[in-house]
Specification:
By secondary structure, this protein is an alpha+beta fold. The protein is built from ten helices and 31 strands. The longest helix has 18 residues, at 121-138. A hairpin with a 2-residue loop joins strand 22 (459-466) and strand 23 (469-470). The chain starts with 7 loop residues before the first strand and ends in a 19-residue tail after the last strand.
Length: 596
């Protein structure tokens, strides 16, 4: 209920939500309690988190809410054990700089697919299956059942989507109400154009962010009579490959002071970011190629960094909050930092050339090259191949190459394409006789914010022209880079002279595993698996040059480290460092800290 339209009531008394956003799917479950305790020790009382549908749904259509950092029930129990309330953000769309904003890639299989709307029956059917599954797990944890869930968020920043289907928001509210959930809130930008048409009666308004009385007034005007809070207050901002390094937004300290002075409710997005392990990093629509892929690290410049260490902004905010809390508020001391270690330099051995372990080709049943989602692949690599006629030098024109490619003619590298830079064409040299064209494409994260997420299909997508002729009859060799295929990859002869890329392997002995950061700065672009766990992608365009490897991924004794690099053919040394690299990398001209 609303007192003065801006306060929450809990058991009849005014209640200030002091939220810390952290995503269990980005944190090794062994560290969940530590991260929750850092929030509690700062004087915060609530954990906010997204549930990422596409990580819970398995290829066979079943849902995994139990294993590793997908254990939703385990995380909710920990929040409750630690005396923290919960803001529950089940999606189905989450954004969150996560691959396709948490939606499963199979939704893009149909070329006419629409997302986040009642207008697409396939979407509605798929999301209903997910929502049924997640509701079953969460329902026992609702506050009315004695659990920690204070409120459930409907969708996410729907006011920023370029198709506002009010019926969809109403459908979601009705769905959750039937399941016994509530109260509800929405999260949107603090402007009339974000809030109009998407706020619902009796649903609290979350502002992303709400930083002053003017923001509260807009919310009161668009949705009178309900509580308002700053549902995403940004202490840092996200980063893309090729941008500057992570930096905190110092102004957040003053925002927290304002919330505490006014008794306003707020949540820090993100209090602790964690890591985009595997293929979970998303992308934005922007830059020359309308594509900006996110880093593996989700450090965010948060008060608690990627490895769980509390910084100076944490200390400043803690002081402000503790000053305002009543004397009886028992706020614990912050937990100790989790130890980190160095691993002395080691040089892996060549295991195989990148091209040696490609699977058998399949022929496309379409005249145009098929996209990854058509054969149910999410990210990874594929090699597209077709015949090209003899002829003079000509330009090879692509409609889309998503997202990074090497173009070979008769086994010779003739060009590179990087979608970030808007590159879509390659000059083919003269061909005395017909030749074979091969395009090795690496997919990166699906766009997760903006309606262009609906058309972000991976691989070679759309017609390919050589001069004026459209090239057809494509075959594909698909390499999804599944962990088991990397671990079991047969040993090859090694990379050929002309073809780039290799699979390297090292066996590293560790006596006492601790957290570490693998320094990949001498490699070019690729992925690292530690004991069969994909710890993410690296890329020498920066700013991230080191990959976080938490102690739970390591073993006492022998550890197998697999590296797949798209360019490198000679093994280079790797070492483990105690912290992530902080040198600035390339800085964009605009300030990257939460400037919409």
């Amino acid at each position: 209920g609303g007192e003065g339209n801006q306060e929450f009531m809990l058991n009849g008394k005014p209640f200030q939500i002091r939220g810390a956003e952290m995503h269990p799917q980005r944190i090794p479950r062994e560290y969940w309690r530590h991260r929750i305790r850092t929030a509690k020790a700062m004087g915060l009382n609530t954990i906010a988190f997204y549930v990422f549908w596409n990580d819970h749904e398995q290829p066979d259509g079943s849902f995994d809410f139990k294993t590793g950092n997908r254990d939703l029930e385990g995380f909710l129990k920990l929040c409750q054990e630690e005396g923290m309330w919960v803001l529950f953000r089940p999606g189905p769309y989450a954004c969150g700089e996560w691959d396709l904003g948490g939606l499963p890639h199979y939704l893009l299989k149909d070329p006419k697919a629409k997302l986040r709307t009642t207008e697409d029956a396939k979407f509605m059917k798929a999301q209903t299956r997910y929502l049924e599954a997640v509701a079953r797990v969460a329902e026992p944890f609702l506050a009315k059942n004695g659990g920690p869930i204070l409120m459930t968020q409907l969708e996410n920043e729907y006011g920023s989507y370029q198709r506002k289907d009010r019926k969809y928001m109403e459908w979601l509210k009705a769905f959750w109400s039937r399941k016994g959930f509530g109260p509800f809130y929405t999260s949107d930008g603090a402007g009339e154009h974000f809030l109009k048409g998407v706020v619902l009666p009796d649903v609290a308004v979350g502002l992303d962010p709400g930083l002053n009385d003017g923001h509260w007034k807009v919310a009161n005007k668009c949705n009178p009579g309900v509580p308002v809070f700053s549902s995403e207050t940004y202490p840092g901002w996200l980063r893309h490959w090729g941008e500057g390094n992570w930096a905190p937004t110092p102004g957040v300290v003053n925002h927290v002071r304002w919330f505490m002075d006014k008794g306003r409710s707020f949540s820090l997005f993100v209090f602790h970011g964690g890591t985009n392990f595997g293929f979970s990093a998303g992308a934005n629509n922007g830059g020359p190629g309308k594509y900006q892929p996110d880093l593996t690290s989700y450090d965010y410049g948060s008060p608690v960094d990627e490895q769980g260490r509390m910084n100076e902004y944490y200390a400043q905010m803690r002081e402000i909050i503790l000053e305002k809390l009543p004397p009886g508020a028992a706020v614990p001391e912050p937990p100790a930092d989790i130890p980190a270690m160095e691993i002395p330099e080691f040089t892996p051995a060549v295991h195989a050339g990148l091209w040696e372990n490609l699977p058998k080709p399949f022929r496309s049943k379409f005249p145009q090259p098929p996209y990854f989602e058509q054969w149910n692949q999410n990210q990874g690599i594929a090699v597209y191949s077709t015949a090209v006629p003899a002829g003079p030098p000509e330009t090879l024109e692509f409609t889309n190459v998503n997202d990074y490619a090497q173009v070979y003619l008769d086994g010779e590298l003739v060009g590179m394409l990087d979608r970030r830079l808007g590159q879509k064409s390659v000059k083919l040299p003269e061909r005395r006789k017909p030749g074979t064209l091969e395009i090795l494409v690496e997919a990166m994260g699906h766009i997760n914010f903006h309606i262009s997420m609906e058309s972000d299909r991976k691989g070679v997508y759309g017609p390919v022209k050589l001069g004026t002729r459209e090239l057809k009859n494509w075959t594909v060799r698909a390499l999804p880079l599944k962990a088991d295929s990397m671990v079991r990859a047969p040993k090859g002869k090694g990379p050929s002279q002309k073809r780039e890329g290799a699979h390297f392997r090292a066996v590293v002995n560790i006596e006492e595993p601790q957290d570490t950061f693998l320094d990949m700065s001498r490699y070019v672009k690729g992925y690292v698996w530690v004991n069969g766990i994909n710890v993410g992608r690296y890329w020498n365009v920066g700013p991230q040059l080191r990959l976080y490897v938490p102690a739970p991924f390591l073993k006492k004794g022998e550890n197998v480290i697999d590296i797949l690099d798209l360019h490198e053919k000679e093994p280079k040394p790797v070492r483990g460092m105690k912290e992530r690299n902080k040198e600035p990398g390339k800085i964009n001209t605009k300030n990257l800290d939460n400037q919409w």
